[in-house]
Amino acid sequence: MQPSRRAVATATGVSVLAAGLTAASAAPATALSPAIAPLTVPAGAPPGTDPQAYTTVARAITVYDEHDRSLVPAYLKAIDNGLPASRAKATKRVLIVGAGPAGLLAADLLNRAGHDVVVIEANGNRVGGRIKTFRKGGHENGEQPFADPKQYAEAGAMRLPDSHPLLMALLKKYGLPLQEFYLVDVAVENPTKKANRTWIHVNGIRMRRADYERNPAKINDTFGVTDPDRTKTASAILADALEPAHQLIRGKEGTALVKGWVEVLKRYGHWSMYRYLTEVAKLDIRTIDLIGTVQNLTSRLHLSFLHSFLSAALIDPKTKFWEIKGGTALLADALYAPVKGKVKLDRRAVRIEHHDGKVKVHTVSEDCQTGNGGVTEVFEGDEAIITVPFSGLRHVAFDPPLTYGKRRAITELHYDAATKVLLEFSRRWWEFTEEQWKETLNSIQDKLYDKYKAGRVEDGAYLGAHKSVKDLGVTVPDEIKKCFAAFRPFMSGEPEAAHTRGGGSVSDNANRFVYFEHSGGTEIGDGGIMLASYSWSDDALKWDAYADDERYLRALAGVQAVYGRRCEVFFTTKGRTQSWMRDHYAYGEASVLFPGQHTELFPDIPASEGPLHFAGDHTSIKPAWIEGALESAVRTALKVHTG
After folding, report:
1. What pLDDT is recorded for position 37?
2. Tens of pLDDT along 493-521?
3. Do the beta carbons of residue 463 and residue 484 sit within 8 Å?
4. Residue-range domains of the chain with CATH
5. 556-569, pLDDT tens digit by residue?
6. Average pLDDT in the 24-39 region?
7. CA-to-CA distance for 599 and 565, rounded, in angstroms?
8. Helix, strand, or coil here: 343?
9. With contact defined as beta carbons under 8 Å apart, do 594 and 303 qualify?
10. Relative orientation angle of helices 254-268 and 234-246, to the nearest 10 degrees
11. Radius of gyration of the chain, Cα coordinates, nearest whole angstrom
12. Cβ(283)–Cβ(59) under 8 Å?
């Protein structure tokens, strides 16, 4: 008997998560788990699955129409030139619920085509959805988030792949300044050269990525990985594991590509990533532990195989990533500007009804939700585009009720957690050489460099001790230094200087993944922001248990465990954090589906219901990516305009 979707989700995910952080003396795989007999042929879909659902989802993946032709050229034309005037019907009053990228772009397209548009946004001071930058100023008139007024950091979208054509077209249209986002770190002296000097720190072993690529066994042995995978990197093992699925779509176009994706969906659409790795790739538990820890899959092994596979399939390894100088929120500013007069802030939709050819959206202001006064307002139009995440629509009433398929999707669609903890440092110490460390530390106190190297700095006395911190107007209170001493990791010495730019490190401590922000240009000065912890799913929820201010010292201690304790001298004590699961406008990072939800739920998600249309990244097969939101914006704007 095959495990059900929910059984896989609840059983395997927990055991793998627990096993992913084992000590260096790992026991053989069979010590924790009995051998799993792999299937010779993948099991078919459960009875009752609509055969047409496979084709519907396959075309959504490829962004094809019903004739298996790409929709992207028409979408690009709409972005560049506007909606097709020759096909325009009567002018309509269109209500757009949500002012994220989907809502703002749809509003701009329809407004330029002559329609009367109103955008209804729950947030009282900001648009952009999960495009959010911690910055001073902007359309939201944000307060200075860090000690250094030049610094900014991304709470949400931070990587912009050049393989996303609609996004690239918008960036070009608005003339937004770009710089490369280094997914892999580069040499400080030569940013065109990949360095692979960032750390992997797991099971008590610290290795440069370049050293791990040369000698994977040093880390793999700590997980108990055996031949032939013992001498392969985690990324290579994962690539080999995904090859059977890749073969079904590689090199195909048009109808052949759609059929390839249909086959992927039929074979693996109801599988978790864990099940695929055990039954198709035939990996044992220890090898899966390795992949989960190093490749950031542990917390999502119980979720849909398709989610992780789509990320690998839709973004080529050669893809270049960009970031916007000044913050991704500059894109939100640009989308907002042409429709600013059409946007109604501080209006949360609580009921949507449509009767007699009219749509009404009933809203309340934020303070009205607690019964302490506030404002209620009803907006009326001919049609509506609803971009609110389905997790948010769970609290919106519809009259008449939505179809069963839509209601089921709103109820069951899984939204995952993602949490960021960002720390400010007065110097980008991760770019330092060992000589620079020596000079800098000894400028604080004679032979302080030697004290750190010998592990003789045993408390938090030097937290924020460098002159550059004081130059920013920061004086670290003794109480913080005393309390921080309890968090500092025990270390007998210091690892060698990172001496790297961009990229990030992975560890098995609570921080999980570390990224270095804004690695290009000199306009940000000598300081920098570190994404000290970037975690998903259950890893993120463990941070969410703490209040914002309780996270920063913990995150700094996690960074020190990987990079050494001496970085504390540059810590300004300023930080920012974003929990998307606790955000009451987002209700989660993105829709990250359970096994089977692509075929069981997705066909109903973007489907219009009378005058109600649905947009947002969750209505695409690119959840969490701006591109998915943009695709949905053009799709729904065209439907309203030509319908």
Report:
1. 38
2. 999 999 999 999 999 999 999 999 776 55
3. yes
4. 5-52+191-314 (1.10.405.10), 71-132+328-415+590-642 (3.50.50.60), 418-579 (3.30.70.2100)
5. 999 999 999 999 99
6. 36
7. 49
8. strand
9. yes
10. 110
11. 25
12. no
Determine contact, residues 618/326, Cβ cutoff 8 Å: no
Note whether 293 and 152 are within 8 A (CB).
no
The pTM for the full model equals 0.91
Which of 365, 269, 300, 336 is CA-nearest to residue 61? 269
Residue the block writes with tokens 């084992």: 22
Instruction: Compute the distance between CA of residue 171 and CA of residue 418 in angstroms, rounded to an integer.
Output: 26
Contacts 24+ apart (CB under 8 A), 206-211: 206/495, 206/562, 209/184, 209/185
Q: How far apart are the first and last CA of the chain?
A: 48
Kind of pairing between the strands at 376-381 and 513-516:
unpaired
Beta bridge partners of 612: 384, 609
362, 352 Cβ separation under 8 angstroms? yes
Q: Cα torsion for 113, 116, 119, 125, to the nearest 10°?
A: 100
Return all residues near 271 (Cβ < 8 A) that are at least 6 apart: 8, 42, 279, 304, 305, 595
Question: CA nearest 338: which of 108, 83, 641?
Answer: 108
Please say whether the beta carbons of 14 and 194 come within 8 A.
no
Q: Which residue has the tokens 């001071």?
A: 125
Strands annotated E in 76-173: 93-97, 116-120, 133-134, 153-154, 160-161
Q: How many whole angstroms separate alpha carbon 200 and alpha carbon 219?
A: 9
